[in-house]
Amino acid sequence: MNDFILQLEGMEFAIIAAGEGSRLRKEGFNLPKPLLPLHGVPLIERLIRVFAKEGAQQVHVIINRQSPELKTFLTHTAFELPIILIEEDTPSSLHSFALLVKSNPAWTSCCLTTTDTVFKPHEFHEYLTAFRQSDADAFMAVTPFVDDESPLYVNTDDELNVEAFLDKATAGTKFVSGGIYCFRKAAMDCALRSVAAGNSRMRNFQRALLENDLNVEAFVFEKVVDIDHLKDRIVAERFLSEEVS
Question: What is the pTM of this model?
Answer without folding.
Answer: 0.92
